[in-house]
Specification:
Layout: H1 18-28, H2 49-52, H3 63-73, E1 82-85, E2 91-96, E3 99-104, E4 110-111, E5 116-117, E6 122-123, H4 124-133, E7 146-150, E8 155-161, H5 166-175, E9 181-187, H6 193-203, H7 208-218, H8 232-243, E10 251-254, E11 259-261, H9 266-279
Parallel strand pairs: 8-9
Antiparallel strand pairs: 1-2, 2-3, 3-4, 5-6, 7-9, 8-10, 10-11
Length: 280
């Protein structure tokens, strides 16, 4: 059976703390969040050298104590990948995959929420989650996407999209107006059987980019596939999206690895494209 991501709404949630909340709630319920993850032990912790000096000794609390206490008190808590100090004295970040929670030095209290630096108005939690969710753009299998080049096309953007996603249609209308960009669209049909049918009909068309925009912008239904067509790329994209934890559409990826969920306004897409191009 081909791996298929769980059903999602029309766009990926932009609230970065949602997954962290699910991790915590599942642990409190005594259920393992991911079957392949084991209960955390003290030896499971990796403390980055840069943070080690700032962490208190196990006697007074710290990563090993947090590990032991969470394992004892919340047996369903998944394997912890990292514990690091935060800018707040006595508060630690507990990272599980690309999700983060916070705990005191003895894990007597666990917090699901966000830290904001009031001096700079920076959301430190959001910035951290963006770094954790960043991807290696060069490793994406672009051959499994169809390509639309606008202008010189020197800037690159990857979009995971479902043909029946209303927010994807909104995004597509904005993307048309952006110059000097090559858009790689990965068909990601997670909204039902009709999404798979339309994805197949788009992918198998002589000009997938034109058929895609005719449908997404003008409402022209893709012509049904006549004959055999290799849709392996769509199946691979479904598996890829699951590995990358793409939980909704549209999902955008920029050359610098930045991941952004949802139908971003054109101005924000332009800003992110410019920033990514400046880093390359």
């Amino acid at each position: 059976m081909n791996p298929v991501p769980p059903p999602a709404g029309p766009h990926e949630s932009s609230a970065p703390a949602v997954l962290g909340a699910l991790v915590l709630l599942a642990a409190l319920a005594g259920a393992a969040v991911v079957a392949s993850r084991t209960v955390p032990q003290a030896a499971d912790f990796v403390v980055p050298p840069a943070h080690a000096a700032a962490l208190p000794s196990p006697a007074g609390g710290g990563p090993e104590v947090i590990a032991a206490n969470l394992a004892q008190r919340l047996p369903g808590f998944p394997k912890i990948d990292e514990v690091r100090a935060t800018p707040i004295a006595g508060l630690y970040e507990v990272r599980v995959g690309s999700d983060v929670l916070y705990a005191d030095a003895r894990a007597d209290h666990v917090i699901q929420g966000q830290i904001v630096d009031t001096r700079t108005r920076e959301n430190l939690t959001e910035a951290r989650l963006e770094r954790l969710s960043a991807i290696d753009f060069s490793a994406l299998p672009l051959a499994d996407a169809f390509v639309i080049r606008q202008g010189a096309g020197s800037r690159k953007l990857v979009v995971f999209a479902d043909p029946n996603c209303g927010y994807c249609k909104r995004l597509e209308r904005d993307l048309v107006a952006i110059d000097d960009v090559t858009v790689y669209t990965f068909l990601y049909p997670i909204l039902g059987p009709d999404s798979r049918t339309k994805s197949r009909d788009v992918w198998c068309a002589a000009d997938p980019g034109k058929v895609w925009r005719d449908w997404m912008i003008d409402g022209v239904v893709p012509a049904a596939v006549d004959g055999a067509c290799d849709t392996g790329a769509i199946e691979r994209t479904l598996a890829l999206g699951q590995r990358m934890r793409v939980q909704g559409t549209p999902a955008l990826f920029f050359e610098d690895g930045t991941r952004k969920p949802g139908a971003l306004p054109r101005a924000q897409v332009e800003q992110l494209l410019a920033a990514a191009a400046g880093k390359s």
